[in-house]
Write a structure and sequence with these properties.
By secondary structure, the protein is mainly α. Helices cover 80% and strands 0% of the residues.
């Protein structure tokens, strides 16, 4: 699944650290302070550069990152992996999806952050972290990791997937549905889960295989001694 899962684990450690930093900064005071000042400034910029074609594009991206597109795509990928009997990839993808959904609701309730005013689309619930950003990153990056073999081709698709996830996240700020820090924190969390679970499962499988090999060697030594 991953050409070098230990390098991926180190990358996830960096991503996780960045995620924690963003979450701590927002958690210090989600409605005042310098984080909110940055969010306010970015929101004003998004409002200033609004034009009708980009608004419609942002709305289309918002729909593409929503549940009515995201979940059917996820189920299709899960079914394909099961049909191909790629159980490790299936487990990694399912774990990334399930944990991301659990995190979204739990963290929104914990932070209780209100959304920006005057959204151009209908929104519900709380703001931080952005569920669209989390789900978009988990789905886009996760699909590439579990379906595309390692190599240069996968690297290109990973860049495309990351770009799609970023555009989906930014579409939410362009429509005043989320603050910038909402989508940054959500995107970091989603990518960490999408890459972290495959890397962790491969590490566990490698450790299990090594233990089995060691047991076989011990058994062979005992047999020779007997």
């Amino acid at each position: 699944m991953l050409l070098n899962h230990r390098r991926a684990l180190r990358l996830c450690g960096v991503l996780l650290l960045a995620t924690v930093v963003v979450f701590l900064l927002v958690g210090r005071d989600p409605n005042r302070g310098f984080v909110q000042e940055i969010d306010d400034a970015f929101l004003r910029l998004m409002v200033d550069v609004r034009v009708s074609p980009l608004v419609w594009l942002a709305k289309a991206l918002s729909v593409a990152g929503g549940v009515w597109v995201n979940w059917p795509l996820r189920v299709l990928v899960m079914a394909l992996l099961a049909w191909r009997r790629r159980w490790l990839q299936l487990c990694a993808f399912v774990l990334a999806v399930v944990t991301s959904e659990l995190f979204i609701g739990t963290l929104k309730d914990f932070y209780g952050r209100p959304r920006p005013p005057d959204s151009l689309i209908e929104t519900g619930g709380l703001s931080f972290p952005s569920g669209h950003a989390v789900a978009g990153a988990v789905t886009a990056v996760g699909i590439v990791v579990v379906l595309v073999p390692p190599g240069a081709r996968r690297w290109r698709w990973e860049l495309i997937a990351a770009g799609v996830a970023v555009l989906m996240a930014l579409s939410r700020t362009y429509l005043s549905a989320h603050w910038l820090s909402d989508v940054v924190g959500g995107g970091l969390l989603g990518i960490t889960l999408a890459v972290g679970w495959p890397a962790l499962l491969q590490e566990l499988r490698g450790a299990s295989a090594q233990d089995s090999a060691d047991d076989a060697d011990d058994a062979g030594v005992t047999s020779e001694a007997g």
